[in-house]
Hints:
16 helices
Amino acid sequence: MRDWLKLDKKYFKISFYVVVSACILMVFYQIVSNASDVFQSIGIVIKVILKMLAPIIYGLIIAYLLYKPCIKMDNLLLKTRFFGKPKHRGACKATAVILVNILFIVLLALFFYAVIPSAVNSIAQIIDQSDQFIPPLQNMFVNLLHNKVIADLLAYANIDVNNLTSSESILGLIDQGQVFLESMGTYLLGFIVNIGTFVYNFVIGLILAIYVNLDLEHLRCQYRSLMRIVFSKSYGRISKVGHLANDMFLKYLVDKAECSLIIGVLYYIITLIVGVKYALLIALILTVTNMIPFFGPFIGAVPIFIFSLLSGFNTALLMMLFIVVVQQIDGNILAPKIIGNSVNLSGFWIIVSILVCGKIAGVIGMILAIPIFAILQTLIGDWIRARASKTNEQVLTAANDDSEKNPSTENITKE
């Protein structure tokens, strides 16, 4: 009877594992066969969660960007006679946080007041005047195709100018550009409709950022205590990675933003001197795209060339020349001076990081690609050095053990 019970328990255990394995396989098959629907559902759930947490995410991002200025302002106030007293330490920190946030709001308001209305007006003018400048652009491209030098180059490349013109491939491309410009109005309208939600989330996030920076030390202690409990064995390594990521991201993004701002001001001055229309919009586009390493200037050059054509073909070529010159200044003077060797990535890994992260996360991924790969390179390099050091120690230990076991070998070597 006991043997039968033991046998029955054994078969029940095996049957249970078989049933569970079959259920797991069925679920896995359903997921694989309906992968697109599953991933779409996951994406919808993630979007809903991110929409709910948007004010908190904005607040954490603002707090992260402002915590260094808050510390610097706090150190400046501590040098004054009033806030330098120990009993005023709390008031000093609160005053520093409030002053930094007020300065942030003022700068943001000045930016929106000075830049955004002008950029929106420029886009609106381009959309309204698209019917006027599309025909001249078409005639200009047709004349270029019949230019002797360009015709010879196309003939050398076995391209028939007559077929190219008759097929209207370039003219069709221009018409598509007109459709794109007209669709920009729809996107602009959608942006204006959603601006209320953005402002609400941003204001709530700004208030949350003030509380985060005021209670930063207490929140840090809670975070560290939680991490020590959850990751008791690997807390040291996680803490090291966190400090490395914080330093790398903050330094790179701040330095890159400083470079882009200088480049944007330089572009604005150049466009004013050259007399290009929509100078502020052009400078804003080039400032934003300059945040994308390597490919950013090429991305920004496409709309700039189109906008510059409104002032003439020679002006567009001149702007392209200025873009090349300014990018040389950025790459050889500004970036080495401001950013320096903070990331220490080779050109190959920079291109790989931008392509990979851009494919995963779009423009945001391209902006964050270099610091992410720089962190990975540092961590992998530390791991390789640690493994190599451990291997060398093992080799030396094995060699010492062999010499102790065979002292005659050592004597022969000395002789």
